[in-house]
Fold this protein.
Amino acid sequence: MGPLRVVVRRGGVVEATHRVHVASTDGLLIGDDIVSFLRSSAKPIQAIPLIEAYDDLDDDEIAIACASHRADPAQLAAARKLLARARATVDDLECGPQEGRPDGRLGHNCSGKHAGFLAVCAAHGWPFAGYRLADHPLQRRLRALLPGDAATDGCGIPTYAQPLTEQAALLLPTPERIADAMRAFPALLGHSDGDDTRLMQALPGWIAKVGAEGLLCARSPEGVGWAFKVEDGSFRGLRPAVGAMLGVADFAVVAVENSRDERVGEVQTDS
């Protein structure tokens, strides 16, 4: 079976088409077993050393370590809590700044993950400097959790490439401590209209995390893993594909609006 076709219609005309490949751990494969990098979808797994190092973490600390955040006040506050736990400063973050974001490196969408990394280093007595590099003890620990060919992610740490069928299993080993924190604070994971946040709110008990270039990985309460990958990297194709496969009615049709907030089209799977 070929990939799902998600089409963008304006005035009845198909203006764009996105091909979405889907895999699940119960053997489903729609499209191809394409290889892509995990990127931010791996953050719940990258948070495992954090919960191993501390038994008194608050849910918001764990959730922000899994987040690709928008630098909202609550998100920045949670990242600061992890920095305080590490007795680190914003200058110790090795994610770099992002243009248009507040508070320098703290405003980077991966700062929660990086603050969590610093907290792990503090717990083990590992140096802060170079924690993002492949030969640092932290990254060696993460490498044991994440197989695949390595490259450098947007925030400077290693990321790993896997086929879609392996990505479907990515979140299966997520410890319940991490899953519970994600479910407690889904809005910290990204933003209120994020595909992962909305999916977790629509389907109680699920966990989900998006990654760059149109990837979303998820796990059902029954322990079935899913991966959705938009071939052209556009997040626009994700939500209708997820809605079609997981039965989320609110995801089936995404409105296209103009600058006057008028509905001028829709994005949906091509039946």
